[in-house]
């Protein structure tokens, strides 16, 4: 039994040359940077350097898990598990991704950036483990998804765009009803609406309504025309508009 175990055990599998280690780390830097370029060009919170650092860190951690404890590999009381630290990366990267997700009113942004950080961590793990082909294919697919499918998605959903509206309206007026009526007149569907009370500025005795809406645009007219029309309604104090970002 002991002889069989000795024949199975190969200490060389726990060793890695300096050249191979350098190649894996440099490759992680390149692949992570390729994905970070798209986020950087889009002006997102996690850009070029962030993706590089995540990918490099993931690669370094899996290298440590696989080869960092080689001197203990021959100890009969030690059982090495190369996947242990890698598993912690997959769950631990969530805190960084969560930091890129922002909620402003009814708008949630940063989801795609959070997902790109998570997949970059996976790329770092595959590179660190020496799974070169898998990491290359994964990077190619991610770059295609971010660069090309993003444009396709925008083109495909152009007729069903979503916009966020934030309006300040006099509470004592019937402006809110007029706003809803005007939106329906333009054929715009209201998917979400939040109404809040807020005291007027400069110590006025009256109050304002803060109205946040998410609307779907299923028409060919320019959205600017709708904003101008809403701004002309009596009792509407201010309007802010913005689209969804990924």
What does this structure look like?
This protein is α+β, with helices and mostly antiparallel strands and 246 residues long. It has 2 domains: 11-156, no CATH class; 159-243, 2-Layer Sandwich (Alpha-Beta Plaits). Helix content is 53%, strand content 19%. It is elongated.
Pattern of helices and strands: HHHHHEEHHEHEEHE
**Helicity, as a percent range:** 40-55%
Contiguous runs where pLDDT drops below 50 for at least 5 residues: 1-7
Total helical segments: 9
Q: How many domains make up the coordinates?
A: 2
Arithmetic mean of pLDDT? 75
Structural class: alpha+beta
Distance between the termini: 58 Å
Which descriptor suits the 3D outline?
elongated
β-strand percent reads: 15-25%
Write out key terms for the chains shown.
alpha+beta, Alpha-Beta Plaits, 4-stranded antiparallel beta sheet, two-stranded antiparallel ribbon, 9 helices, elongated, disordered N terminus, cell membrane, MgtC_SapB_SrpB_YhiD_N
Layout of SSEs?
Elements: H1 2-8, H2 18-41, H3 48-67, H4 83-92, H5 94-99, E1 102-104, E2 107-109, H6 111-128, H7 132-156, E3 161-170, H8 175-185, E4 188-199, E5 207-217, H9 223-231, E6 236-243
Antiparallel strand pairs: 1-2, 3-5, 3-6, 4-5
Helix pairs in contact: 2-3, 2-6, 2-7, 3-4, 3-6, 6-7
